[in-house]
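LAB NOTEBOOK - FOLDING QUEUE
OPERATOR: T.R.
BATCH SIZE: 2
PURPOSE: Compare the predicted structure-token outputs for two unrelated chains run back to back under identical settings.
PRIORITY: normal
REVIEWER: second-year student, initials M.K.

ITEM 1
FIELD SEQUENCE / FIELD STRUCTURE:
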Amino acid sequence: MKRDEMIRRIEAGDETWDMIIIGGGATGLGCAIDAAARGYRALLLEQNDFAKGTSSRSTKLVHGGVRYLQQGNVSLVLEALRERGRLLKNAPHLVHHLPFVVPNYDWWEGPFYGIGLRLYDLLAGREGFGKSRNLTREETLERLPTIEPEGLRGGVVYYDGQFDDARLAVNMAETAVDLGATVVNYVRVTGLVKAQEMVCGVTAEDVETGRAFTLGARVVINATGVFTDQVRRMDDAAIHPMIQPSQGIHIVLDRSFLPSEHAIMVPHTDDGRVLFAIPWHDRVVIGTTDTPVSEPTLEPRPFPEEIDFLLTHAVRYLTKDPTPADVLSVFAGLRPLVSAGDTEDTAELSRDHTLHIARSGLVTITGGKWTTYRKMAEDAIDQAAVVAHLDERPCVTKTLHLHGWHVNAASFGALAPYGSDAPGVRMTLKERAGWDEPLHPRLPYRKGEVVWAVRREMARTVEDVLARRTRALLLDARASVEAAPTAAALMAETLGYDESWARAQTEAYTTLAEGYML
């Protein structure tokens, strides 16, 4: 997957694309995969990097949504559980089972959550990840050695899935390219092209070179998440907003705060959200909050009250009390919640996905969640094909293995997230002396992985490498800043840039990473 080749395809293309997809997050990439798998000629344009926004800032869970079951949204839970099972089969190198324990401190919590989670198992059916059961106090402490023991009565264990969101997004981009789609980052859509009041293409700009394009399409799909309404306004300035963004933040701690292979799930926090403490890449991720925001941004920042909220709850449930000094990284993401009217409570807004077709033929797919990206894409491409008057072709993504698929990726050790690409990464590490050395003592990455990300995964900036091709920024923001000059030098050599480019990249990354530190 090489950006130069993708740009050449755009420059050489004098034909109309079957579909142009705006947005390179989970939903847009899913649409590109589905369209290409059906044989449609698809082009995806992303204004920044793949999964730059919401899709790299999730809670890292592939789940049905226990909270939605509590709300009575059984249809959403059923759909998500089905998609959870498919994602495990289609990307086993990045998705795996994760046991959760719900600690019980009140007498009613054991039977209440025990019954609810057994219903969760029943809805999952053959796609279940494991059977839930009630735990004694001793069993709960054995699984969660740092859970607050005072007042603990027991717990309930259940099973869901975990993944690496940004790595999966990269693999999805590669899958789309493998299937024949043209997928490119750092190309910003600047407007919609119309003929007889119908959308028939886009204008776009290559962010790196300033080159402008006018590209024709039989149908345009808006899959831009929290930026959905901005694209819709390109079509009609008078549209009623569809999206109410909600901010969720996570803090990342050392694994010593939860030295367990089990995660903690608190079903009801002070703001009504579910709270998770999850082992991830030898760290602990704690989240999340639910704070309405007025305008979306590519780089949201946590509010002080959100950080206080998570630290307060972490102190409440863990014996080792974290302080701001213990936070290795804090990251914020925006959920593209579909507005249901005048409600101010984002916890009550729809988590279902919404498909909208404008009078101009612009197809918008938004809402939803990471776990259901494939179904969202299937629905969007079904309708887009109708709008474009394309031959009807069945969706084939339910059993489509994603790039990197490997039945035993764990055998690759630290390179397991690369799946079937791991042998190629290993060869890159051996290609030159020093490339097999650690990028930083506190990070689980090698220098040669930077080169691989540039050569094979379309990484264009130090941020692309340290935030999304690796997860260095989330695992330890300060360590990632210290690693940035090395990463920049490796990238500059690989891309053919000079030292001034490397210095500018290091400075830009340092400024960005400061927003992830307390």
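ITEM 2
FIELD SEQUENCE / FIELD STRUCTURE:
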Amino acid sequence: MKSDTNQTYGLLAVLRRAVAAWRPHARLGVLIVAALLVQQLFQTFLAYSLKLIVDNVQSGQNDPPLALILAALLLGFVVAMAATFGGEYLTARAAGRLMGDVRRQLFAQLQALSVAYYVRMKLGDILSRFSGDLKLIEAGYTQAFLNTLLISLGLLVNVPVMLYLEWRLGLLALLSLPLILLANRRLMPGAAAATYDLNQTEGAVVNTVQEAIRAQLVVKAFGLQPTLAARFNDEIDHLTGVIVQSRFAIVLVGKVASMLILLIQILVTAVGALMAFHGTLSAGSLVAFLGILGVVSKDAYEFAKKVIPTLVQAGSGLRRLDEILQERPSVMDTAVPQPLPRLAQHIRFADVDFSYTGAQMNLAQINLTIGAGQSVAFVGPSGSGKSTTLSLILRLYDPLGGQVCFDDVDIRQVTQGALRAQMGTVFQDNYLFNTTIRENIRLSRPEASDAAVEAAAQAAEIHDLIISLPHGYDAQVGEAGGRLSGGQRQRIAIARAILRDPAILLLDEATSALDPGTEAAVNQTIARLGQGRTVIAVTHRLASVVQADQIFVMQNGRLVEQGTHQTLLAQGGLYHQLWQKQTGFEVSDDGRRARVGPRRLQQMHLFSNLSEEQLTAVADQFASEHYAAHEVIFNEGAAGDRFYMLVRGQVEVLANDKYGVARHLEVLEDGDHFGEMALLQNKPRNATIKTLTPCLVITLGREQFNNLVAYFPEMLPAIEQRVARSENNLAALQRQDPPDL
């Protein structure tokens, strides 16, 4: 739930927020105000001393003595200079403390927000608030706020002096001030709105740059440089227009106010000159009055030209800051949480419904029970709801209907901290922070001793490798763990999960990105560490769940089958189909080579009508190819030269719609095949295939494939069905509405 932050943040609102920010640092603020007051008193005394000097000159008297006046000025200058430098130093210290408070508050809020917020928000927009907007707020809280105090102190000191010197001129100057307030009131809302639009647009540009940098592999592979450059140029053109509007609106506020101040100064000078000419005001009083008026006018001019625009910009920054601070997590702890002992009986889903967007259900009427100490797995096609189920167990989201219970306690009735303290999680992509191996493992239990960290590493079978490194446990892993291999990163993630001695071990595609040899070794480690714990795995690779106590088969957000491996195979349902699709391959330990068996080929529609002898001949013609994660196998529009079977891994199918934007069509997994349409129709590729994980494929070249079709015409009916389905998918894509860019 999000609070409304569409109101305009005016000058008073910004100043009130600044006062609140200064309150914890009141002692420092008092010292700074004292320094400002000393500076202001000196300026007032300097102006008033002109009256004494001029009157002495005109009267021919030396009362008070000129030497005393000059000595007082010199002493005042020294004191004012010391106050100036001291005040600047204290202001610098205050700025650091004030913005430290704001940054801590913002960071804490970002950590408290739910996963759904980060799915909805763009990272670049969040980062721009942490940088550019905070700079605007800092200027408002320090420079503008202190200048406002200085000007206010100046008015408190100088207005009585002006009225003392000549009350009629003083009233004339004061009565003209409402003109400035009226002008500001008319111009401020437009300037504030224009500045907010500028900050929003700058955030969008930052996000575009960040996406372009992070997606360089895709940019290069798809040749997207011209497309991104054109899109970025459009954004810059829009930003330029917004900058013009914002800057002009801010300048207009300052210039109108400063012109009115100048007009008041001219008016008061003219009236004062006439009064002095007619003898109703002494020359010394006129000079002193104009001197003090000059100080007040200068302060007012600076306020109009610099302080007001700074406060306007700070108001925009505060508005964008509050859009985060007023955001409420979608998952919140209950006010009076129940205790949650260590899991002893079961985890239960009771009539659970869930939707990410509310438009369609991602899970519907899920009912299942996971016994404490069991090893269970969620399997099914891509997008079936496997990972969503795991997210509900972690309580990253709350169900729309039904309950998720731990030992009959609804997990919404306990704190998220207490719930997740029982869990250790290993993801497919485990983020390692750019620090040491020791600290990456210790993250799950910050108070853990070095001995406990090393024991966890030994349990994860990574200790020997760590101590072989030049710096051992103090070795830096690099950004996102880039200095380690995929298997090493996974074992460190396992050590991190085990360090907290979890009752529940959650595995989300934990080994899908590893080569077969590493995967088998890691699975053995997980099986050993899972003894005595509840192990919940989400995977698309069925070979890793054969020994599970219970397998839950998901399809289209529903639980369609459940049982052991043998039970599910005997049922002949979806699990049996997935198993048949994924088996029949022989893969080398390094995951670089594979061979397909005749019986596996026979399960494919393309080859279902061939004899075993013919299938053996076909199998011998396949060659192996290996691709890294996020690599493009082929681009849309490229010449079709091979037919592919996906032995291991996941790939994404993308195609450009009629607007030239790449759209996601589907995800293919172990056992799927692709690429035959371009071969059969002798046309360019009609889609792009990009790997999501490291992939091993076996391929047939164009010549071999076409020879097979010519030699075995029995393949044609199945091929025609496949071509028709793909053409229907592409036709549906072209009918889609334009994307929201």
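REVIEWER COMMENT (ITEM 2): The mean pLDDT is 81.
FOLLOW-UP: none requested
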